[in-house]
Design goal:
Strand order of the largest sheet: 2-1-3-8-7-4-5-6
Shape: globular
Distance between the termini: 36 Å
Order of helices and strands: EHEHEHEHEHHEHEHEH
Radius of gyration: 18 Å
Number of helices: 9
Length: 313
């Protein structure tokens, strides 16, 4: 076992999400920080995100959601930040998978990243835990389906391709929302080409309310149902948002979603067979007025409240 002091980096967070108690095994839901940004291609800083998102969550006061009329505060624990190597992606991924699998045996976990490379380890742990591939709902500006990472084998832009190739997710139940970055057609269309669905940011322009988003929401539900309602994983790259709403991210892409659009989707799909969530690519050094970390905190809180509403806890 790796000694914790080996990775006692100064950026690790001592705060907790919504003021939740630390490491309470009796609580079903948990958040945990994944402070790794060793695979970014542009601006680093996502290792600082878990602390910033936790701090922003304190603005949620008693945490009662105005739509669902529930609060996760009495059901939630904070597992702290995982102790990981901070630059070696393969070593970090192996340790993350091991720690994530152990946590999934005790809790439903929302992970606070970190760059998007961490999602591959989290999906590996989920696949190991459930013994079957998962459905995937993926918010992002980028398709993350490149077959290499600027000449390297893997990075934060390859994990979706790797997850499909490894059989971690069901191709027909893999859905991407907000994609808009430049890229080769083969990468941009990869999820469509294997039977999944890419909802581009251009398709969603001007559609904000659940009623306006019905076509997309219905298709997501149909695809998950057609796959047999498998465990469904939510990965939310904060750069799915337009930089006006989330300037604090490593690879900002103009023309993105707004905060209300993302909340409409999270609130409408609250009762899917969720197995876990991550929120990644928040980079506090590039944030303005903490806009990005506050959006991330609200997204995670909304997801947790939806879980409680769906399960009537």
């Amino acid at each position: 076992m790796m000694h914790a002091r080996m990775y006692g980096f100064p950026y690790l967070s001592a705060n907790s999400f919504l003021g939740a108690p630390h490491d309470d095994a009796s609580r079903r839901y948990a958040v945990a920080g994944v402070p790794f940004d060793g695979a970014v291609t542009n601006r680093p800083g996502a290792r600082f995100a878990p602390e910033a998102i936790r701090r922003a969550s304190q603005m949620l006061c008693d945490g009662v959601h105005p739509l669902f009329d529930v609060s996760p505060t009495n059901f939630l624990t904070d597992l702290g930040d995982l102790m990981l190597p901070n630059t070696g992606i393969e070593a970090a991924r192996q340790e993350l998978q091991r720690l994530a699998f152990a946590a999934l045996g005790r809790h439903y976990v929302c992970w606070l990243g970190g760059d998007h490379s961490v999602t591959l380890s989290l999906l590996r742990a989920q696949r190991e835990r459930h013994g079957r591939p998962l459905a995937l709902v993926h918010f992002d500006a980028h398709c993350d389906t490149w077959t290499d990472h600027f000449g390297e084998a893997s990075g934060h832009g390859t994990w979706t391709y790797e997850a499909i190739q490894e059989g971690l997710v069901i191709p027909a139940a893999t859905m991407q929302i907000g994609i808009r970055s430049s890229g080769l057609r083969e990468a941009r269309e990869y999820v469509n080409s294997v039977g999944g669905r890419v909802f581009t940011a251009r398709e969603l322009r001007g559609l904000e309310s659940p009623e306006q988003l019905t076509t997309m929401l219905d298709e997501i539900r149909r695809r998950i149902a057609a796959a047999g309602n498998p465990p469904t994983y939510l990965t939310l790259d904060i750069d799915c948002l337009d930089p006006a709403f989330a300037p604090g991210t490593g690879t900002p892409e103009p023309g993105g979603l707004n905060t209300s659009q993302v909340l409409s989707v999270l609130e409408a799909l609250y009762d899917l067979p969720w197995a876990g969530m991550d929120c990644v690519e928040v980079s506090p050094p590039y944030d303005h007025a903490e806009l990005t970390s506050h959006a991330a905190a609200v997204f995670v809180w909304t997801h947790l409240c939806g879980l409680l509403a769906a399960r009537r806890e």
